[in-house]
Each structure stands twice: as structure tokens, then as C-alpha cells.
Amino acid sequence: xxxxxxFELASRQAEWLAVRQAAISGNVANANTPGFKAxxxxxxxxVLEQTQLTMAATNPKHLExxxxxxxxxxxxxxxxxxxxxSKNTVSLEEEMVKSGEINRQFSLNTSIVKAFHRMMLSxxxx
Length: 126
What we know:
It contains 3 helices and no strands. By secondary structure, it is an all-alpha fold. It has one domain (about 5-125). The chain is elongated, with a radius of gyration of 19 Å.
């Protein structure tokens, strides 16, 4: 039987979100710094592809989907080319949108971990 890696995965995403939050806050802090280039981290999808977690069918009735049968949407890489009067590339509106995304992802991550923890506790108690 394979181990359950949900907590490890959630931990990795929380670390990634913390790093992204630091990058975005650095962008906001340097919004008026002349020549500053806005930064962001690589998408979590890329980080996730570097891990060795694989899906496993634990029941023969589970659906079998091979890699060629899954249609994935590629993440769009937005290159910031607009410069403001101080010749930096920070857009406060975009940084606030990214900050909201990070907040929602943190909340979702926490909710999933809490639900999975409750499920595991109820399984152990019964």
C-alpha cells in the first residue's frame, strides 16, 4: 500500500505560496523604485512536476486515464513590458490581484488539509 502524500503536497504548496507572497510584497514595496523589475515565482504546476508523487488506483474499478487522454491547459506566461514613469514594471493593480489569488489558495489549502485531517481522525476512531 502506498502512503498518503496529501499533507506533504499541501506543505509544499504552502511553502510555495509563502515564497510567492514575499515576491509580490517585494514588488509592492518597490513600486516607486526607479528601474525595478517586477518578480514572480515559477508556477506551482512546474514545482509539482518536479516531485515524485504519482496517482495510484487502489481499486480495480477506478478509471484508467493515460497521460495522452488528459487535456491540460497550459499556463499563460505574462511578460510585463509596460513601464511607468519611473521605468519600473510594477503594476499595483496586478500585484493586488496576485495577492488575492495567494490568499484564496492559502484558504483552499487549509480547508483541504482540515477536511482530510477530520476524515483521517474519523477513520482511526471507528
